[in-house]
Amino acid sequence: MREKYDRRGKEEPKAPKDPALKRKGFYIMRRKQIAGSVQPDGRGIQFIYLDGGRMESFARITGNVTDEGVLGLLRTAEGFRKLVHSIGVTVEMEEGTGREADFVFQMYGKPDAGAPGTQVRVSVPADGMERIVELSDYEWSASDNVPGQIRFEFPQAGVLAEASVRLYLQEGFEAPEEAEEEAVDLESPHYEKILEKSLLQTGNPARLQRAIRKAKQGEDVTIAFIGGSITQGAGAVPIHTECYACKAFEGFCRLAGRGTEENIHYIKAGVGGTPSELGMLRYERDVLREGSAEPDIVVVEFAVNDAGDETGGVCYDSLVRKILSAGNRPAVVLLFAVFADDWNLQERLKPVGIAYDLPMVSIRDAVVGQFYQKTGEGKVFGKAQFFYDCFHPSNLGHRVMADCLENLFRTVEAMPDGTDCLHLERIEAPLGGEFEAVRLFDRKSAAEGIRVDCGSFCHWDGELQAVEMDRDLTPTKEFPNNWMHRAGGSPFSSVGNASSMGDASVVESALSMGDASVRDGSSLTEAPFRMEIVCSALILVYKDSGSSLAGRAEVFVDGEKVLTADPRENGWLHCNPAICFRGRERRKYHVEIRMAPGDEDKEFTILGFGYVG
Question: How confident is the model at residue 93 (pLDDT cuts 50, 70, 90)?
């Protein structure tokens, strides 16, 4: 067919096709900052998780969806496909950082289905224009269980962009009107009231005042942060500089009149999905850095992670006492973050701050009330602006958290000088402090009274949860000195075996303890991990995994089964503590860990142990 040209010889514009019917829909992401976090292959990936109620929360907060029927359909793969016709994706990058990204929508497969869920991958121009992904263009797997995650993948790490994701609905479904986001004014008197409401109590200001005074005088001061994924920086883009911890550190430096590279030092030790039960074990390694660091201020943030604390607050109390008991008498600040459903464990944990007269800062008290105010009547920002997802704050949320801490620092500095009169030994732990002296034992530890024969758990596992520590974008692997039982493999690692067994030794051979089942020729792959340890309490730390290769392990103490550890229960890669026993007589115990019946050919990783000697 001959092309049509105008009189100047240029091709005439073609008549546009009839526009596609604009379907009703709602956003689950709207102009959210994203970043390509560094991957082992050099690419950058931003993960947005949808499972565990996150998709519904996105729809409520960002999409303004209140219809419970619609929200219910988002919980399953089948419901999602019944509801959603297509996905609109918009990506806009900064100039000079590339013009394209891969958008990936991932279903999670059914447990033990033996097949992964469907993965939709499309290349999206990063020009701010919407790309429509129609679900009918893809073949969907029968093993799909739930909407699992969204990924934005970039050719290189460190890319910053802004992204929106909108779900367009099938015929017959209604979507709410889109709520316009209001301008945020952090200079307004209403914002000052938010900061004031965050301060539950200053407590005894003496230790904080001493740290501020040292910093102003040019002496070395270290401020540390320990907590869960919010402290790690989840929701902040980029995670290492926009997280509340880094922002609060910078605020402290401004207060002291010092640059961030001078005499004030920064430690960030947040690990996603972990409670204070694990935090008290990580403290020496991740905060004290095995004795190389001595923090003057420690901010403790576990108020939204400790629902899984088996002890109901004893571990949190024990961690606080551990920090307070340090010889340099550091200041401890209790920070209570909040989820998008207005929940935290503040009421459970406040007695710890009251008992030791500690500063306490509540993000829940600061922001939740104003969420429900009208603009101009106290509302400064909405939930969709404060939260990145149902668990984590956005850049704005992290900024607010940092400002609340900076408000504490400034308030304490202006107070009359306090006297450090805390005598920990005279104060009964309000929630219980039996783990105050807990220590971490792993494959490279040397400890009196502990002997180990790793049996078939003789390998090292390198596929571990990794987190961005301090201001480093390169993730650090958690618990690298571990013991792994491989799936259907040789029991011995390439590092060699030890032949002797004595105190403070970690023996790499299944033969050293004289196991009869090994001597008579039975499979070495079935030899248990065995440990003799003198203690009064013992905690196992093991690796959670979503892999179908992961299997359960059983823990026996003096021949009695005390625990079955299932690494697939939570369904994702992270560190999981579980109490084997507590409150027992201090004596020698014999501990065995063996693969559960039927799971002998699967894998399991012992990350380490916490023990009270």
Answer: confident
Chain position carrying tokens 């900052």? 33
Listing DSSP states for 482-513 in one string gives -EEE-SSS-S--TT-------TTEEE--TTTT
SS3 at position 348: helix
Question: Distances from the Cα of 232 to the Cαs of 179, 237, 396, 473, in angstroms?
Answer: 31, 12, 16, 11
CA–CA dist 154, 35 (Å, integer)? 9
Dihedral sign from CA coordinates of 107, 113, 114, 115: negative
What does the radius of gyration of the chain's CA atoms come to, in whole angstroms? 27
In the beta sheet, which residues pair with residue 105?
A: 120, 150
- DSSP-assigned letter for residue 290: G
Q: How far apart are CA 313 and CA 354, in angstroms?
A: 14
Q: What share of the chain is helix, strand, coil (3-state, %, to 5)?
A: 25, 30, 45
CB 537 within 8 A of CB 438: yes
- At 523 the pLDDT is 45
CA 266, 221, 267: angle at the middle one, nearest 5? Answer: 20
Residue 502 tokens, joined: 């004595």
Cα 322 from Cα 287, distance rounded (Å): 12
Residues, the chain: 613
> Tokens in use for 162?
């802004």
The residues facing 164 across adjacent strands are: 90
Mean pLDDT to the nearest integer, 470-487: 94
3-state secondary structure 68-116: HHHHHHCCCHHHHHHHEEEEEEEEEECCCCCCEEEEEEEEEECCCCCCC
Please list the residues that pair with 587 across neighbouring strands.
Answer: 535
Q: What percent of the chain has pLDDT over 90?
A: 77
pTM of the shown model: 0.85
Phi, psi of 433 (to 5 degrees): -120, 35
Q: Are residues 277 and 311 in contact, defined by beta-carbon separation less than 8 angstroms?
A: yes
